[in-house]
Amino acid sequence: MHRSEKVWLTLSFGMIMLFMLATGYQSYALEMGPPSNMETIDPQKVDQTAPFDNPGVKQIGDNEYEVVMTLQVFSFNPGKLEFPAGSTVHFTLTSKDVVHGFQVANTNINAMVMPGHIQKITQKFDKPGEYLVLCNEYCGAGHQMMATTITVK
Amino acid sequence: MNSVVKSPKDSKLSMSYLTVGFIAVFIGAICGLLQGLVRGGVIELPSFINYYQLLTAHGVLLALVFTTYFIYGLLFAGVSKTMGALSDKARSIGWIGFWVMTIGTICSTIMIILGEASVLYTFYAPLKAHPLYYIGLALVVVGSWIGGAAMLMHYSGWRKKNSGKLSPLFGYMTTATIILWIVCTIGVAISVLFQFIPWSFGWADRINVLLSRTLFWYFGHPLVYFWLLPAYIIWYVCIPKIIGGKVFSDSLARLSFVLFILFSIPVGFHHQLTESGIPEGWKFLQVVLTFMVITPSLMTAFSLFATFETTGREKGARGLFGWLKKLPYNDVRFFAPFMGMLFFIPGGAGGIVNASHQMNTVIHNTLWVVGHFHITVGTPVVLTFFGVTYWLVPYLTGRKLTPALNRAGMIQTILWSVGMFFMSTAMHILGLFGAPRRTAYSTYQDNPTALEWFHGFFAHYTTVALGGTILFIAAMMMVYLFFHLAFFAPKAENDIEATEFPIGEVAEHAYTTPRILENWKVWIGIVVVLILIAYTIPVTDMITHAPAGSPPIRTW
Ligand code: HEM
Ligand SMILES: [Cu+2]
Ligand SMILES: [Cu+2]
Q1: Domain positions in chain A
Q2: How close A7 gets to chain B, by Cα (Å)?
Q3: Is B172 a catalytic residue?
Q4: Which of A17-26, B267-276, B386-395, B496-505 has the lowest mean pLDDT?
Q5: pTM here?
Q6: In the structure, what pLDDT confidence band is assigned to residue B3 with cuts at 50, 70 and 90?
Q7: How close B545 comes to chain A (CA, Å)?
């Protein structure tokens, strides 16, 4: 091999190793890994299966909330959520029909919600404001209407 | 090698593939234009067209049909050029592949037009299209296997006749590309044949959604390398000749292709990072393998710039960057792929962001992703293919790329680059602001966040529409130039006038190529092992711990 070729390969490989270490560190040491919950559910019996038989918001501690939510064409249930600033919110989500997305603009919430699978994601809301919640996976003719809001006061 | 006589029969086969490809560009670009205009709020679609129907057609016709047909047209021409005319048997098989693919394409396209298949090109279950949509796609894949077999036959025939000799670089790279394609399409073929077709006919009640997505992305990532490798063949083999230089290193070129086969397949989970049902550790493993596949791309970049520099210096360039001035920028055969390479620099960097586990959650399913693949497949690959068209078509039809046509090609390339610059930059920025992909015009009931996507300069849907319109003009020019070069450009009267198929020679100082690189059994063996490591446990888990599946649903 040419010398410059070796230098280039070493540099590029070093860079790649660095990226790998960075992602590994973030995932495992900082627990910033992507949402990967393993629980499953019968997609045709969502309404009869706990906790989705009773979707809604529950306060579970000081400034800590649990949201049990179903996604279906073309809505989020419950919608229009409100939390005080500084709240930590644990979302538990599933789909009653096709695959949907759960994205909250200007936060790091972004997860696929698939029928048959329960997705979990946690987020702390510090900054007050109205956050746009939208479905970011194509789910049918009304996909572009599927949105709601989270208001942080 | 240049002494090999051109086979008119092989040329006809190649031209047939290319023609279908450019018809697909014509329809796909019209869809793309309309998408951009709709999202920008510039137009509203008439009630008989659905946005997602257009998007399905755009994805299928450009990402699947155009690419595959163009690649086959190019590779058939290249193996015929470098390893001699195809045998009658191999050529017949090539034709069978062509017709099977074409019947499939027509079948799926009709279903999209009828509104029976608005499920996008990824056809995620449990959205259910008409069974003929899936059957059509299956035929496209099976047809490509048949055509691929013809090329593999030709390659092994050459090696039998020339035992002990190193195969031509073009033939070697073609073989690598076809092997990659066959190994990866097996995943999607299993899913379509055993999951989607029975379920869409109603023979099976439910479908395993996660398994179908996993099989899709087992195919979906190497798919992008199936697009990229033929562009790399041009960059490694043809560009050196076009700029008057030599192939920098034969062994480095072959090694990079082997690495692509190894690392581009066991990485599909990086498209499923935000999905439940796949343990984080397995996602991480595939992210690591994804990073590995950056290496051969960096090797390719090195090799290219080394060729540019060496050639420039031989032409008398001085100083650190003097060689940059010696490149033939006014030759569209060079200029178009060169513009593509420039786009690939931010494109590749963006790809590293996408693959990075948690940065992925910022951009997953946002318009950023759409911006990303338009500056990877949509520009580096596509501009390389367009650049090839300017010499391949006249080569195949015995015509000439006149100076006027070269100029038209230059303008076409500039328009594509400018349009893509505006469209993709806007898409990237809108994506960072949260704008979703695959979504028709929407302000989400005038939500303030969504309204911001209509302010600013680059963070503006109208900029997407503007860029898309310029791109559309460039696409129409390209389709016109294709047919012009095929049927109306002046005939070459003699050998000197004839358009050449540029095949670079290897530089004298290059090292000899290790023989193991041509031992396919070894590489296929290793890739199978890597695939088994990356997928066996999570896939077994998906099957044994599957939730009750999903019934078919139509939501459009
Ligand atoms: C005339 C030129 C083009 C224009 C104006 C254009 C425009 C667009 C737009 C606006 C979208 C996004 C729609 C959305 O997410 O809602 C899109 C998606 C897409 N484009 Fe293009 N594009 C062009 C050329 C190409 C080319 C040449 C390719 C590939 C070879 C390509 C591949 C794709 C793919 C794969 C998608 C995603 C489809 C999906 O999400 O299912 N496009 N295009
Ligand atoms: Cu949706
Ligand atoms: Cu990928």
Answers
A1: 1-33, 39-152
A2: 11
A3: no
A4: A17-26
A5: 0.95
A6: very low
A7: 8
